[in-house]
């Protein structure tokens, strides 16, 4: 089956507008013409693409499978237009980065300010969450994740590691009576549905009957609780340019040689060819190299 880019462009417009009438207005077409084109496309596919209702349209199962590829085609078409208008050293457009919330807040948000100075026409869109987005389906352009990719179409562009350490606010640290061990601390950890994450499981394995004193499903909430003196927190000690460790104390507890956290920078092979994505990759790799040098000194 061969689908033309023009038909796919119209299909995407209907999806984004939410109705045939709204899409027709946005495209400058008659609604009857657009409806006919979509019917012809559905005939070529062999199945309906939209369920039509009083409130507009929604995608069928086959259309949902078609949507990610169509969105990527639109992005490449936009990138082709931009490449003709913008100088090679001035990449432009949106780049989506998926990352855990803690890294998104402490690293990517301030990183965006530095990137903007270098490439004012680039726009970062940070997708913060613990779930690993699917780069093959185009859910993001880049990913910073705690596990290496297993998909052969994904490239690990860089990685950085640091020891997992126990941190606490000075107010809580001063209340502890020495000597103390892991089981003597009030712990901050993960709430449902993230009890399976590595940091939580490390505490479950190290402390019999482990129950956190405070839990949250967002790392930024955990960090705020730690700063407030609620308890201790496990953190991979990776000192990047924007680190906020100065607000916390390392309690000096040894978790063993295998207690290491690693962050991986991942991209799909096809996305790496986009100049705007490559510009962000280069900037991120410079930041990670800065962090490695800072740790070595």
Explained architecture:
The protein is of the alpha/beta class and 297 residues long. Helix content is 41%, strand content 21%. It has three domains: 5-70, Arc Repressor Mutant, subunit A; 85-160 and 262-296, Periplasmic binding protein-like II (D-Maltodextrin-Binding Protein, domain 2, 3-Layer(aba) Sandwich), CATH 3.40.190.10; 161-261, 3-Layer(aba) Sandwich (D-Maltodextrin-Binding Protein, domain 2), CATH 3.40.190.10. The strands form three sheets. Strands 3, 4, 5, 6, 9, 10 and 11 form a seven-stranded mixed β-sheet that branches. The chain has a two-stranded antiparallel ribbon with strand order 1-2. α1 crosses α2, α1 crosses α4 and α2 crosses α3. The chain is elongated, with a radius of gyration of 24 Å. The relative contact order is 0.13.
Number of extended strands: 11
The chain-level mean pLDDT equals 89
Number of helical stretches of at least 4 residues: 9
Ranges where pLDDT stays below 50 over 5 or more residues in a row are none
Whole-angstrom Rg: 24 Å
Query: Helix and strand string, N-terminal first?
Result: HHHEEHEHEEEHEHEHEEEH
Would you spell out the secondary-structure blueprint of this structure?
Blueprint: H1 5-17, H2 20-27, H3 31-45, E1 50-53, E2 56-59, H4 61-85, E3 93-99, H5 101-118, E4 122-128, E5 142-145, E6 154-168, H6 170-173, E7 188-190, H7 198-206, E8 214-216, H8 219-227, E9 233-236, E10 249-250, E11 260-268, H9 275-296
Parallel strand pairs: 3-4, 3-5, 7-8
Antiparallel strand pairs: 1-2, 5-11, 6-9, 6-10, 6-11
